[in-house]
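User: Hey, quick favor. My workstation is busy. Could you predict this chain's structure for me?
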Amino acid sequence: MTDQDHCRELARAGLRAGVLPARSPELTWGGPGAGSSCAVCSVTIPREETELEIEVAGNALHFHVRCFAAWHVELICSAN
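Assistant: No problem, here it is.
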């Protein structure tokens, strides 16, 4: 299983459990990691990595780029 496959598996589980939002974000922005925990894999995002932050229904979530991509793909797949 590749890293991306693992991220997609975690994203699917998060969507099923209702832990991850099942709709597109209102806002998305990125920058250096701020030490937040990734919403998909729960691993801290260090300053050396790019972090994507989204806002959905007033809640901010932080993602590794690869985890955001996995969540977004699973979100689109689940809508079809």
